[in-house]
Design brief:
The chain has a 7-stranded antiparallel sheet. It has a 6-stranded antiparallel sheet with strand order 11-2-3-13-14-15, with helices on one face. A two-stranded parallel sheet has the order 1-12. It has 7 helices and 15 strands. The chain has about 290 residues and is an alpha+beta fold.
């Protein structure tokens, strides 16, 4: 086992790139009564981006499930959230694939114009249902999803080139490069931030001796162990443009009952102190 880990580390270091401006999102989750206090599933995302508008809202589509979460930009594009069935969907950048290559890749759009993550959260009730929509997995990106009983991530390089990891008991974590053995060769450059954050969140998860609580996951999203550029919570350079943590989300989906949402986000890109925080049960009651 130690030999295998050393070989994997050497392989990753061969693609290692030091850069303070790389994409930086960290996603992680835990599921099962042996891992989550009270049972069910915990899932989190720390979102790093250049400054942009973010808003929180609930969508009630004419067809499909209602969902609530964070939307970004003037077009209010869905970024992360949970639907009325208790399915959570996150997406992260496959930053180890060059931006030009990612831009050229054919992207999934549903007939209604929905991107992959929004299509899944609007049309699927469980992780298993979401994983059946393999037509979505066609561009360099990563998905993480969860329901009451399961967590999963999907690493995607191209159509028919994707890898799925599922857990019904335990925890998972991901950042911005491929970590499954069948996609490692598609990492062209692994950012220092991505590798550092992955190692750190795996350390926090593996060293935790009791069942995870929502407060534990909130604390993990605030971790600043590796400095302003490489920590899970990324401060960046306050005097310059660049990628910084703009939002963090933690959701507890119990085995039975109403999920609990924690969301911290900047709602005004022109004001670096414009943090908003909500923490409340997730209900869907259309006015």
């Amino acid at each position: 086992m130690k030999k295998a880990l050393l070989l994997l580390s050497s392989f990753l270091l061969g693609f290692y790139l030091v850069t303070p401006t790389s994409h930086a999102c960290t996603v992680f989750g835990a599921t099962g009564s042996d891992y989550v206090q009270g049972g069910g599933t915990l899932i989190s995302k720390v979102r790093d981006e250049i400054k942009l508008w973010q808003t929180v809202k609930t969508v009630y589509p004419k067809q499909g499930y209602a969902y609530t979460g964070l939307f970004n930009g003037k077009k209010e594009i869905f970024n992360m959230g949970i639907n009325e069935k208790g399915l959570v969907v996150f997406r992260t950048t496959a930053g180890s694939v060059p931006k030009d290559e990612r831009k050229k890749a054919k992207r999934f759009l549903s007939p209604e114009g929905l991107r992959g993550q929004e299509f899944l959260i609007q049309n699927c009730a469980t992780v298993d249902e979401a994983l059946k929509h393999t037509e979505i997995f066609q561009e360099p990106t990563n998905y993480m999803m969860a329901d009451r009983n399961k967590i999963a991530y999907v690493e995607v390089h191209s159509k028919d080139n994707y890898s799925i990891t599922v857990k019904t008991k335990g925890y998972l974590a991901h950042t911005n490069h491929y970590i499954n053995s069948d996609l490692l060769s598609y990492n062209q450059k692994i950012g220092k931030s991505s590798l550092t954050r992955l190692n750190r969140i795996q350390e926090l998860l593996s060293n935790h001796k009791t069942c995870f609580t929502m407060n534990d996951f909130i604390a993990f999203t605030e971790d600043r162990n590796a400095g302003r550029y490489n920590s899970i919570f990324r401060i960046g350079n306050p005097e310059a443009e660049g990628y910084k943590t703009l939002s963090t989300m933690v959701i507890h989906i119990p085995e039975k009952g109403i999920p609990l949402l924690y969301l911290k986000w900047k709602d005004n890109p022109k004001n670096p102190q414009s943090w908003q925080i909500i923490q409340h049960p997730v209900t869907f009651k259309k006015n």
